[in-house]
Amino acid sequence: MQNGHPDTITPLTASDPSSERLQRLVSEQKSRKKWLLVQPVSNTSMMVDSGTVSMPLNLLMVATLAGELFDVTFIDERLGDTVPEDLSGYDVVAITSRTLNATKAYAIADNAKAQGKIVILGGVHPTMLNDEAREHCSSVVYGEIESVWTELATDVLLGSMKEVYKASALKPMTNMRHPDFTHALQSKRSKKYSSLIPILATKGCPVGCNFCTTPTIYGKNYRYREIDFVIDEMKYHQERLGKEKINLSFMDDNISFRPKYFMELLEEMSKIGVRWNANISMNFLHKPEVAELAGRSGCDLLSIGFESLNPETLKSVHKGSNRLDNYGTVVSNLHKNGIAIQGYFMFGFDNDSEESFQLTYDFIMENQIEFPVFSLVTPFPGTPYYDEMKPRLRHFDWDKYDTYHYMFEPEKLGGEKLLENFVKLQKEVYKGRAIMQRMKGKPLNWVWFVNYMMHRFTKKLTPEMYL
After folding, report:
1. CATH 3.40.640.10 fits 195-466, yes or no
2. What is residue 171's DSSP assignment?
3. How far apart are the C-alpha atoms of 58 and 213, rounded to whole Å?
4. CB under 8 A, 24+ apart: contacts of 362-367
5. Distances (CA, A) of 22 to 16, 25, 152, 153, 170
6. Where is the composition biased (Polar residues) (predicted)?
7. How confident is the model at residue 254 (pLDDT cuts 50, 70, 90)?
8. What is the distance between the terminal CA atoms of the chain, rounded to a whole angstrom?
C-alpha cells in the first residue's frame, strides 16, 4: 500500500538487496512460471466444509504475493473445484493444510511431487509437524509466508529449493497489503463463499493457552496494522461491492489484546457504516464501554471461547483471561448493545463430570446464548497439550482431528458417558422449545437460520458418530 490506499501495493523494489535481486531474476524470465494454489477439502464426516464456506484469507495472501511475479491458478476444493490429475501445465503446486485436511493435502502433494513439480506445503499442520510434511513436498513454509516470501520466490526462480522456509523474525504488519479477492472470485462456484468478507487487523497472541497453535504460527508478539490502512481496506470493499453496509469478519486470533488500539479502531469503524463480527477474548468485555463501542461500530456477533464452566479446567489449559465470575457480566454487556454471542464450549477434559454438561446447559439457557458451539477436546500436533496427551491419544488419523471426534478417555467420566452427554446436550440446546427460549426478543436474522439448521443436524446425532 502507498498513501494508505488499499488498491496499491508496496513494490518489492525497496532498498532491500534481496528484493532487488528478486526483481532482476523476474525480469530475466523468458516466460512467467505457473503456480497452482490449492485449498483442500477435508475428509471429516462432520459439517466442516458443507454449505457456505469462508474465503481462505491466508491462501489469498499467497495468491496476491505470487500474482505479482507468476501466473496463478487458484483452486478451492471446498467449492467443488477439482485439482487436475495432470499437472503438466504448472511449475509450482502450493497447498495449504490444517490438521483435518492434511491427508488430502498430502495426496495432492504426492501426485505433484511424482510429476516433478516444485511442491510447497504451508499452513498450520505443516508448520506444527514440518518433519512429517517434508516427506510429501519440496519445501515447507513454517508459519506465515509474508516473512519469507522474497527468499522463497527467489529460490523458485533459481530452481533451488530449501526444505524449510522459516523467518528469523516476523515482519511488522504496518504496511501489509490487502489480498486480491479476484483470485477466489474467478471460480464459477464462488457464490458458495460466505458473504462475510475476511479481514485482518492484528496477528499473534501472547496469552499462550496450551491447546492453541497461534503462538507457533504467528508468534507470541502482538503485531497490528495501522488503523488508517484497515479502514481504507474496508472502504475498498464498500466501493468494490457498491454499498456501505458490508459484512466483515475479522480473522484475528485476539483482536482486543491491545485495548487502546482496539477502541481506536472501533471508533473509526463507527463512522463508515460497516457490520462486523470477530473472535474475541474475554479480557475487557466485562467493561460496559467496550461493548457499547462495539455495538455502535456495527458489531453483529462476537465469538467467545467460554470453553468450560469448571474453574479447574480453565486453570489446567492456562485460559487465564476467562474468569467465571465475569461470564454473566460479559454476556449482559453484549446483549444490552444488540450483539449476539457465538459461545464455544469444550468437553472431554479430565476434570469434566456429568455435572459439567448440566452447568453448561443452564448457563446457555439462562444467558440466552444465541449460537452455542460444542466441541470435543482435541490436542493438536505441535502444541504443549498434544505433547502432554500423546501417550493417551486413541489414534493419529488426521481426518478426525476436527474437534468432533473422541480423542482420549477422560479420567472422571469415561468415553461412553462423555459421548452420551455430549449428544444429549446438543439435542437439548437445539430443541425447538430451547431455541425459542434462547432467541426470544432477538432480531430475525441469519442467527435464527443457523439455529434452524442446527436443530435439523442435532436430531440425527448419535454417540457413534464421534468415535
Report:
1. no
2. P
3. 15
4. 363/306, 363/309, 363/327, 364/429, 364/438, 365/429, 365/434, 365/437, 365/438, 367/327, 367/328, 367/331, 367/332
5. 10, 5, 10, 7, 20
6. 1-17
7. confident
8. 48
Whether 17-166 and 195-466 share one fold: the answer is no
Alpha-carbon distance of 159 to 116, in angstroms, equals: 12
Q: Which secondary-structure segment (H or E) carries 63?
A: helix 57-67
Give every CB contact of residue 227 below 8 A, 6+ residues apart in sequence: 261, 264, 265, 268
> Under a CB-based contact definition with an 8 Å cutoff, are residues 115 and 91 in contact?
no
Could you give the CA distance from residue 75 to residue 105 in angstroms, rounded to a whole number?
Answer: 13
The answer to whether residue 158 scores a pLDDT higher than 90 is yes
Cell numbers describing residue 171:
515482519
What digits encode the pLDDT tens for the residues 257-297?
A: 889 999 999 999 999 999 999 998 887 788 899 999 999 99
How many Cβ atoms from other residues are within 10 Å of residue 332's Cβ?
14
pLDDT in tens, 196-236: 999 999 998 877 677 788 878 887 788 999 999 999 999 99
Least confident of 51-55, 191-195, 335-339, 392-396: 51-55
Cα–Cα distance for residue pair 79/29, rounded to 1 Å: 33
CATH of domain 17-166: 3.40.50.280
Averaged pLDDT, 421-433: 98
Pair 347, 383: CB distance under 8 Å: no
Compute the distance between CA of residue 237 and CA of residue 180 in angstroms, rounded to an integer: 11
Residue 297 corresponds to which amino acid?
Answer: S
Q: Which amino acid is at 323?
A: R
pLDDT band at 323 (very low <50, low <70, confident <90, very high): low
Q: What is the pTM of this model?
A: 0.91
Counts for the chain of helices (H) and strands (E), in that order: 18, 14
How far apart are alpha carbons 35 and 70 in whole angstroms?
7
In the three-class reduction of DSSP (H, G, I as helix; E, B as strand; rest coil), residue 354 is classed as helix
Query: Under the phi-then-psi rule, with left for phi > 0, alpha for psi from -120 to 50, and beta for the rest, what region is 195?
Result: alpha
3 state DSSP class of 188: coil
Q: Measuring CA to CA, which residue among 400, 388, 411, 405 is closest to residue 464?
A: 405
Domain boundaries, the chain: 17-166, 195-466
Instruction: Report how far residue 423's alpha carbon sits from residue 420's, in angstroms, rounded to the nearest whole number.
Output: 5
Cell, residue 121 = 506445503
141 beta partners? 165
**Residue 298 backbone class (left: φ over 0; alpha: ψ -120 to 50; beta: rest):** left
d(CA 403, CA 48) in angstroms, rounded, equals 10
Q: Is the CA virtual torsion 319, 386, 220, 179 positive or negative? A: negative
